[in-house]
Design goal:
homotrimer, about 350 residues, alpha+beta
């Protein structure tokens, strides 16, 4: 009856269904400036047109996570407005750099559904693809969310669970074509360490911490057109589970990525997101720290310019992370940990 | 003596006087990105160049309210720096879309003055016109403000009250020329409802709520070059009427408009502002909700692409609005209501 | 061992050494929009392309202080990450206007060092030069910072103190070429006062006050790529000297400059920074006021369009400044004063 959208419930989804998301969005130099102000990201190719052109790109591309957030945000009103929880990501693959002036749109396909035994919720699996204005895919990822059922809704006929990749493999990674780092002065990127200098098992404390202000995460999340209510409405959340607004998980990912510049200065491009766990919520006033571990180092097929590093970046709140907190000996998660992200970056090889 | 501007008093205005406002301002993609971050507006033509071009516009225009705020802001130092109250608007008419790169300037004419019987204040009526860099009018509106008199200032000779329109009539509305919505996929605008689907008397709860942070309304109001002191100076306002900074009324209008996307997704263009009442102040920390009523539906002369809807959008603070709060049976305003806005939007007709 | 940067200590600097700073940064219309939102700056040439072109510039240049902050920010990771205090500036000279699309980079030379008698800290003097993408110098300044020594570090052989200018002289000032203000309507810049209207000794109360929000100074400081920890990390600063984050001193300078519009509307260009003293820290929640004194008025050699004014702008917190607070009769600084800035501006001469 009412024309306003109160969000889809579990039984409103159908396996195989395609959801064309509103609203396509032109991303501009203004979005990139705001992204810089929100996180202080300083990775070289995204910061300066001249540096980007020195290495063979037409201009400075947008930060990869800005692209991720915009595509993700489009899917929220159709997928997760009634989500009880964002359960996971997998198989995130960055396929094309995005430049100021490009218009991003997103489509999701429902690839799996499973009702929970409590009869009140279910899990919906989707594959989301973001495209630019000429139809090229720029990003693809899988995610799954726990969604409420309507009261009294019946049982779904048969569950279907998709077969999701544990991790993207190096041969699947897509690097921008024809880069040449020979003209890039190391001092300009801020990093003296190249792909060969990192090895599996190495851990890096990113040292710095960033305190989240309510205005900041709200500005960020609206910039991404992400309309999930828990981020914006203190009046309603005062009655909610935590008594306060919850920071969009992607905001924490972007903070951790920006902090990781200190020690990973040449990790220029995000190539894939293998998986991520938001193990605890973050709130306005929390201070986020991050550390990273190199999980794997892999050359890129046929590329002498770039190599790939698989990283785990862990963010914790309100504690320094020089001791690399994650799990104790019994596998119990450190209560300060808010993010455990598994992803691939591309880094120039030694000149 | 001092070169700084302490604002005009009632007796500094003259009927018929023209005030050329400082400072013209080029509006850019950066302004639009900030506007998106501040309100999360998701109306399709303003969000994506590709969608705008699909319907016949040269590019995504700026949000109409961003244009309004910039023009309004220019008039503040000359008109309302000493205003006791912004009493009302009338006859607001959007005349041209504004695009990134345009430069906006504003001129006001004093069209009426009336001293109040207390001898301490008076009401000044102005017509303000905003123009782009080639001199085309992009927006015109009337407003009236209560302004202080200097202490001991004498009485004004004769009051003059302008004849202001109760509402803009549909034949006065200006629609962008030659639009064609046939290529616009409804899923991309987020709205399945078109002009014919709305009828007078229909009410829509826009469901969501937005909590205002001090940093947000300050950023917004400075972006508009609006220098009214009550919005920025906690040290002075601590001694003021409310003990705290007052949020610019236009910030509430933009929040309400952005919330109204949920249920009015295809209300693409603001065509006119018939009137508005800021019935109570809003402050940092308040959560704004909104609902709308369709007051009137009118075809546009000679246009088969768009129709006009006259809307009343009501914003309330710190209460959900599913019960459409406004006035009780005795006409007493609900104390939570902060805005009652009467305006025309243009919406595509059914394809 | 660790790859992350914990900052340079005193003994890591060498006199004569050149430090090429990361990361060059393309400044855009997005940065300018954010700068406007952060400070509300309304000086005419920077606000409107049309006005800039009327006076002979190719487009609206970026605010001079935005350029200063970006160049300064680049030097922070190499110079002042372990700074105990930013002790001073001298000889700041703006050499070229910067436009949206330009890429700024920065290089510093260590020109002096002196160990403190406590054996724990030392003072490092640098000359920093900012350049655009074609290598033209756009800004040069000297600054000196107190930096920690490592525990147990030995004494430095011989101190060297540079000979720094007390002030830039008028003949050193660089004005944009070939400006013509004859087409500039005074009402559009907001100022009826020109260079000849100001004389040495004149004081101006800028009247207005601006309250700083934590989100605002964090957004600003990250926008400038300034990574000094004290500005962002409440968790660490809770244990620090003040128990809270310290606002970047440059944020106060930009607030004071924006406030100075009220009374100095035609002070279009910053030409030089002779020196500056941040006499007390500012924090989120503080309200900043400013007043200015004309120290000197000087014609520009061979220029009939512009004259130079040497100004002292003083900012104070949480008190109005109509009584021009600075020092008492015994030379004791007013405890509310947070900034005492000595600089040159360029202002159009009477038409």
């Amino acid at each position: 009856m009412s024309k306003s959208n109160k969000g889809r419930f579990f039984e409103d989804f159908t396996i195989g269904e395609t959801l064309v998301h509103a609203t396509p969005r032109t991303v501009s130099e203004g979005d990139q400036a705001l992204y810089t102000a929100l996180y202080g990201a300083r990775f070289a190719p995204q910061a300066a047109d001249s540096l980007a052109q020195d290495i063979g790109l037409p201009a400075a591309p947008l930060d990869d996570l800005l692209v991720f957030h915009v595509i993700f945000g489009k899917s929220v009103p159709d997928i997760s407005l009634n989500a009880v929880a964002n359960l996971g990501y997998a198989g995130g693959l960055f396929l094309q750099p995005v430049f100021p002036g490009d218009t991003l749109s997103a489509v999701s396909e429902v690839i799996g559904m499973k009702e929970n035994s409590n009869g009140k919720t279910g899990v919906v699996y989707v594959e989301t693809v973001g495209r630019n204005q000429v139809g090229e895919a720029v990003l693809r990822f899988y995610r799954w969310v726990m969604v409420k059922k309507r009261e009294g809704a019946g049982a779904l006929a048969e569950p279907k669970l998709p077969d999701l990749p544990k991790a993207v493999t190096p041969d699947q990674l897509v690097a921008p074509l024809d880069l040449d780092f020979s003209a890039l002065e190391p001092a300009l990127s801020g990093g003296a360490h190249f792909w060969e200098d990192y090895s599996a098992g190495e851990r890096i404390d990113h040292v710095d911490g960033t305190t989240i202000e309510e205005a900041e995460h709200q500005l960020a999340t609206r910039l991404y057109h992400n309309s999930a209510r828990v981020h914006f409405n203190q009046h309603a959340e005062a009655q909610g589970r935590f008594g306060k607004r919850i920071v969009y998980g992607g905001h924490i990912i972007s903070i951790a990525r920006a902090l990781s510049f200190n020690g990973l200065e040449n990790a220029f491009f995000l190539a894939a997101i293998n998986g991520g766990r938001h193990s605890a919520p973050s709130f306005g006033g929390d201070t986020i720290y991050a550390w990273s571990e190199v999980l794997e180092s892999a050359p890129l097929p046929d590329r002498k310019d770039l190599g790939a590093l698989r990283l785990r970046t862990v963010a914790a709140k309100n504690r320094a992370v020089g001791d690399f907190p994650l799990e104790d000996e019994e596998g119990k998660l450190d209560p300060a940990v808010v993010l455990d992200l598994d992803y691939w970056v591309l880094m120039p090889r030694q000149p």
